[in-house]
Design brief:
Elements (H helix, E strand, L loop, with lengths): L4 E5 L3 H13 L3 E2 L6 H11 L3 E5 L8 H11 L4 E5 L4 H8 L5 E4 L4 H31 E6 L2 E6 L3 E7 L2 E6 L4 E5 L2 H5 L6 E5 L2 E4 L3 E4 L3 E4 L2 E4 L5 H7 L4
Parallel strand pairs: 1-2, 1-3, 3-4, 4-5
Antiparallel strand pairs: 6-7, 8-9, 8-12, 9-10, 11-12, 13-14, 14-15
Amino acid sequence: MRKIKVLVVEDEIIIADNLCDSLNDLGFKALEPALSYTEAIELIELEKPNIAILDINLSGTKTGIDLAEKINADYNFPFIFLTSNSDKTTLDAAKKVMPPAYLVKPFSKEELYTTIEIVLNNFLNITAQIEKEDSITKEAIFIKDKGVITKVLFNDIIYLKSDHVYVEVILKNKKVFLIRGSLNDTIKELNNNFIQVHRSYVINLDYLQQIDHKLLIIHDNQIPIGKKYHESILKKINRI
């Protein structure tokens, strides 16, 4: 089983080494400590840590709070703030980057272990929830119809047809939803199974049955093909 990699960012080398020793004793894999913002970024890029422990007050122009902002913006792992200062000014500055946890020196090994475990568990749960929500958006579209918002699976959609300021969404059970908007805007919400075949039509390739130069058959429906779309359709299908 791979050990959890922990990055320690602390500019006092004795404190950093002691913290790394404690982490290793607790069963984690402590990376070589970083003494500054720049060293921390280099280690993040190289080692891809699972979690970081950041001293708020680093030497140099950039603090642990600056590093936390960078992690939030460009990387996807949790961090814990470490400081000997628990005054209101420090806390208010730290709150702005929404730290999952805050350790005040001195602390015990038990506090260190418990904090890391809770932060990682919460991070994994939040990540799983986000992935679940993303998977829903990748497989379905939510359509408002007569005041009711309905989840429609992409797999149930045969094709879409532009009708002036509306788009008709035709399902395989012959139900039709009407969306106010353009075909171009609607196709952006769909997955890669959908392709535009005419200025007024978008089809689900899963239901494509036949194709020639002027029209195609999709789920026993005849759909016209626009000349400029013909080549792109052929590129999307397997031909022998």
